[in-house]
Design goal:
Length: 339
């Protein structure tokens, strides 16, 4: 351990004009200084290496943070686009609800009109709808009708959250109202369907069509001057002029009960319908049916002629209700094609 007591002399020679400076340091101090210097150097190198490593990690973290931020921004942009699409879809749904409501009101009006045509008594609520109120209590006049077509325009303004909430509530209420409206209309339409079916059956057996294609009336129902004697006589039917061979149609569904010849009516056909109704066709040139045959409204049963007590080609047409002849003209409402 003698080296601890040794001393080392260090000389500093600045230049030729200054004195030489001498320093003596013991071995312990010198070794301690070297150790401290080495430790400081090692610490500095370690600090530099750690700084460089941390700098790389910080750069990597910055890149990761930037990438994550970009991803989140894309996600947010996608969410915003999705929200915009949902808002647009909701607006479309709201418009569809309004359009459906308009169509439902049209159906209600049509149903009421069908009831009137079928002779069904219309309830006050139905009349109110026809007058301009729907079952949801909304105005349905022409000014309030909603149409998807036609011109549109206006300033493009952003939609607030409160406005979207209100639109959601309005759309939900509209569809709930439509559901109630449909539930209400189901039994009403069933009743109307049954009534119209009954009316169709009644119409089928009611002589409502012209028995000829001609509309030329040559002699009316009631008292007239007889074409042979020129005296006032009672005419029990309607004479319709035409050409020999023109088709004669059954005025309603029924059963042929007579198809024969008589001196006054010539070739004639008598058809029985329901409810005590009968129709009689006279002065025919040819009979195309026979007694017992079931005929439908508009079927060809004969050809126009001038047989029997007749002055020329025509059809003598009678409508008989419970054995009494009535004026046929009120029954002549439609053609064979629109029966």
């Amino acid at each position: 351990m003698r080296w601890r007591h040794k001393k080392f002399t260090f000389m500093v020679i600045p230049d030729a004009n200054n004195k030489v400076m001498r320093f003596q340091l013991s071995a312990i101090i010198l070794v301690t200084g070297l150790i401290i210097a080495a430790a400081l150097l090692a610490s500095s190198i370690t600090a530099i290496l750690l700084y460089q490593g941390n700098t790389g990690q910080i750069g990597e973290l910055k890149q990761q943070l930037s990438s994550a931020t970009g991803d989140y921004e894309q996600i947010i942009d996608g969410k915003n686009e999705h929200i915009d699409e949902l808002q647009t879809d909701l607006a479309d749904l709201s418009e569809q609800a309004k359009k459906i409501n308009t169509r439902m009101n049209d159906i209600e009006k049509l149903e009421s009109e069908l009831k009137e045509m079928a002779g069904i008594e219309t309830k006050d609520s139905d009349k109110a709808k026809v007058a301009g109120k729907s079952s949801t209590g909304q105005e349905t006049d022409d000014e309030g009708q909603f149409a998807m077509d036609g011109g549109k325009g206006g300033e493009e303004l952003p939609v607030t959250e409160e406005e979207m909430d209100l639109l959601v509530d309005q759309t939900m209420n509209a569809f709930h109202s439509l559901e109630d409206q449909i539930e209400w209309m189901k039994p009403e339409l069933e009743l109307t369907k049954e009534a119209v079916a009954k009316q169709q059956k009644l119409l089928a057996v009611t002589p409502t069509i012209w028995p000829t294609d001609s509309r030329r009336i040559t002699s009316t129902f009631g008292i007239r001057k007889d074409p042979f004697t020129s005296r006032a006589t009672y005419h029990a039917g309607l004479d319709i002029g035409g050409d020999t061979g023109d088709s004669i149609y059954a005025a309603a569904d029924g059963t042929v009960i007579e198809a024969e010849y008589s001196s006054s009516h010539g070739n004639n056909v008598l058809i029985a319908h329901s409810n005590g109704l009968r129709t009689h066709y006279s002065h025919l040139s040819k009979i195309l049916t026979e007694a017992g045959t079931k005929v439908s409204k508009g079927d060809i049963i004969a050809e126009l002629g001038s047989t029997g007590r007749s002055t020329g080609p025509h059809l003598h047409y009678e409508v008989i209700i419970n054995g009494e002849n009535v004026d046929p003209r009120p029954y002549l409402k439609a053609t064979r094609r629109s029966k």
